[in-house]
Amino acid sequence: MAKQAILVPTPAIEEEVLPQTAGYAKAANVKDDIGQLSVGKLMWRRFLRNRLAVGGTIVLTIMYIIIIFAEFFAPYNHLFSNSDFVTRPPQALRFIDAEGNFHLRPFVYGTTTTLDIANLIYIHEDDPEQIYPLHFFVKGKPYKLFGLIPSDIHFYGVDEPGTAFFLGTDRNGRDMVSRIIYGGRVSMTVGLIGVTLTIIFGSVLGTISGYFGGIVDTLMQRVIELLMSFPSIALWAAFAAALPADITTITRFFFISVILSLIGWTSLARQVRAKVLAYREMDFASAAKAAGASHARIILIHMLPNALSHIIVVSTLAIPGMILAETALSFLGLGILPPAVSWGALLQDAQTVAVVVKFPWLMLPGLFVILTVLSFNFIGDGIRDAADPFAI
Amino acid sequence: MVAYFLRRFLYMITTMIFISFIGFFIINLPPGSFIEVYQAQRENMGTRTAEAELEALKRRYALDQPLYVQYWKWASGFVRGDFGRSFQYNREVKDLIWERLGFTAIIATFTLFFTWMVAIPIGIYAATHQYKIGDNVATVVGMAGLSIPDFMLALVLMVIAQRVFGFSVGGLFSREYIDAPWSIAKFIDMLKHIWVPVFVVGTAGTAGLMRIMRGNLLDILNMQYVQAARARGLSEPLVIVKHAVRNALHPLIMLLGMSLPSIISGSLVVSIVLGLPTTGPLYFSALRQQDMFLAGTFLVFLAGMLVVGNFLADILLALVDPRIRYE
User: Fold this and answer.
1) Is the same domain home to A224 and A191?
2) What is the rounded (10 degree) CA torsion for A287, A293, A297, A301?
3) Could you tell me if B327 lies within 8 Å of chain A, comparing CB atoms?
4) Do A326 and A338 contact (CB within 8 A), yes or no?
């Protein structure tokens, strides 16, 4: 039906009425565009119509920029323990001080620490006497951007001995902002690597399996069924537990993403196969076959484009799945191991109700997991609608 | 049909055999034989293991013989109900496993029903009201549910229950029922507790299923036969329920077999946070301790449950969609 829609001749008179400019973004009636614009433009316009998808794209772009330049954006070294500020609650960024004076440059209060003898914990409180104005592009701990460019400029910071822990500190007094940024490096890339492998294996094997049927299909289905008959977390955990303990963080990270995609491709392959199986019985496939089209042509021209929206939706859905899987594995102590950080590894600190009630800010990495996953889901949804631009 | 059923059944059995291969592979995956691991762990605890005990273990698992003999010993033990020994608990695996598997299955079943009952009506509503307020709300809420890690949702629920309502929602039974024999009262007590894991585990599945249902139905609603049905003057509910929804459902039935593994996965992780007496806590601690007989057996059993689920889903799919033919 999609193909037929574009072949419908548009009345000449309408062509004159319609503006032909590219900036015609707010099309009230999609129907009028079909036959007027290229497929790519139609898709792009459809995508832009979905506010949530656009919002997700913006959020993810910002987050990826931050994790790429993590050394610059993180105010502190994420591994640096500070015993003076153990589990300090988040510091508020203020414009108005205790006397009610307005400061154009935002500032943070200093900290007074008392020891609660009864519970043996340090209690940190804001001290309105000490005011540390926030500075941008400050000189701080030297670092090497991408391991190459030496620099010591950080995005923000306050003068010593003031501190800027906007999201609090963990049980070793490490800045949560910095830890979340560095943790994002792992958590936000693990899914991308995993899903690339997933798409390649899943769509190729799924199409072959559904199209050719017979022994190929049977074999492929057995393998898929075998892999899918394990609860994924359990199988991932078993493989991750078997990783040698003495490998480097990078190697471990790489193996974790490979492990994730080892199982991830199966569900995509199965869904593509289901689509192709249904298409194979349809008239357009028989017609193509009768017209003497080769297998490759039938698969590439007639089936894959039809299954495309499905492949895209399933694989965009797979990215958040992998991010969540990494989070869960690390949370269980089987994924990324400390001192390396990922959002899941950070959440290990917040495993019990008692901790969450006492130090709620330790749950904050979870908010970033949700934000990332949500954005990917919104984008996937936007792409889903955009991939079929002829639907009205 | 009968032939197809039989063939699928045979496939199921072969799959089970291959699953046992993978299970055995995983038991042997960590470096070093598990006797060495066992010995090292005992030494860490300050116990020396007697030579005779090691000999007995070696004989029991045929460790001095080639791998296929070891496999055969292990796999044939399965049939006899001998699953090996947990080194961590120093007990027979079979004593540890049954009750926990049962609770896992109960939670999974409840969750599955919850998911389908909630997701499909919402999915239909969202697809028939695309881009209306109801659809957008369902999309946002559903996506939020999809995006929250299970264990975080469980934690937050527990904190809320404790702070706001003043009761704890962890576990599967109240304290007085934990060791009590099964009775109506105990069952009711379980129902009072089980909604938390069912809700937490089901959230992600519900959101996913709803999105897929919505997507499928949207695809179908654009098809010509739906327009044709409308053109023939059929009422809109009839067009949707009889012509569109039916055809949007069968990809979901294929998903039925697939959603079980993710439900089990979810319940594994959630059970750690909620302190449920299910497979999760035991399995993950077994993995961390490299107590591989326990872990491997759990894995094979979980997979076995899912294979049966898949088999049923395939049969169901063949029943409802006569278009699919297998040569």
Assistant:
1) yes
2) -30
3) yes
4) no
- Residues 6 or more apart in contact with residue B319 via CB below 8 angstroms: none
> Could you give the ipTM of this predicted complex?
0.77
Judgement on whether residues A190 and A143 belong to the same structural domain of the protein? no
**Inside any domain, residue A159:** yes
In a domain, A360, yes or no: yes
Check CB contact under 8 Å for A225 and B15: yes
Contact B153, A373 (CB under 8 A): no
3-class DSSP state for residue A198?
A: helix
CA atoms within 13 A on the CB side of A121: 13
Q: How confident is the model at residue A32 (pLDDT cuts 50, 70, 90)?
A: low
Residue A167's nearest CA partner among A6, A379, A380, A346 is A346
Give the SS3 label for residue B274. helix
CB-based contact B203:B111 (threshold 8 Å):
no
Q: Is A238 within 8 Å of B26 when comparing Cβ atoms?
A: yes
pTM, full prediction: 0.78
Cα–chain center distance at A82: 31
Same domain, A216 and A335: yes
Q: Are residues A145 and A244 in the same domain?
A: no
Torsion sign across C-alpha atoms B69, B75, B81, B85: positive
Q: Percent helix, strand, coil in chain A (nearest 5)? A: 60, 15, 25
Name the CATH code of domain B100-326 (choices 3.30.1360.10, 1.10.150.120, 1.10.3720.10, 3.40.720.10). Answer: 1.10.3720.10
For chain A, what is the domain count?
2
For residues A363 and A269, give the distance between their C-alpha atoms in angstroms, rounded to a whole number.
36
> Are A198 and A341 within one domain?
yes
> Both A277 and A354 in a single domain?
yes
The strand pairing partners of A127, in sequence order, are A110
Assess contact for A364 and B141: CB atoms under 8 A. no
d(Cα A138, Cα B138) in Å, to the nearest integer? Answer: 45
- CATH number, position A316: 1.10.3720.10
Is B327 in contact with A277 (Cβ distance < 8 A)?
A: no
A314 closest CA partner among B258, B15, B269, B246 = B258
Burial class (CB in 10 A: 0-12, 13-18, 19+), A156: middle
Indicate the residue of B139, B155, B284 with minimum beta-carbon distance to A237.
B284
User: Which residues of chain B have a pLDDT value below 70?
Assistant: 31-35, 37, 41, 45-50, 62-64, 87, 166-170, 257-258, 323-327
Angle at B19 between CA B13 and CA B23, to 5 degrees: 145
Q: What is the pLDDT of residues B49-67, one digit of tens each?
A: 667 777 777 777 766 677 7
Mean pLDDT for the stretch of residues A130-157: 81
| Confidence band, pLDDT 50/70/90 cuts, at residue A180 | very high
Q: At which of A164, A199, A221 does a domain end?
A: A164
| A231 and A148 inside one domain | no
What are residue A123's DSSP bridge partners? A114
Residue contact A328–B151, C-beta within 8 A? yes
Last residue of one domain, picked from the residues A114, A135, A164: A164
User: Nearest by CB to B224, which of A1, A313, A332?
Assistant: A1
Domain assignment present for residue A85? The answer is: no
Instruction: Check whether the bond before B251 is cis (ω within 30° of 0).
Output: no
Give the structural domain span for A147. Answer: 91-164
* Same domain? A200 vs A299: yes
Look at residue A70 and tell me if it is in a domain: no
Is residue B211 within 8 angstroms of chain A, CB to CB? yes
pLDDT over threshold 70, residue A4 = no
B261 → closest Cβ in A230, A244, A324: A230
Residues in chain A within 8 Å Cβ distance of B313 = none
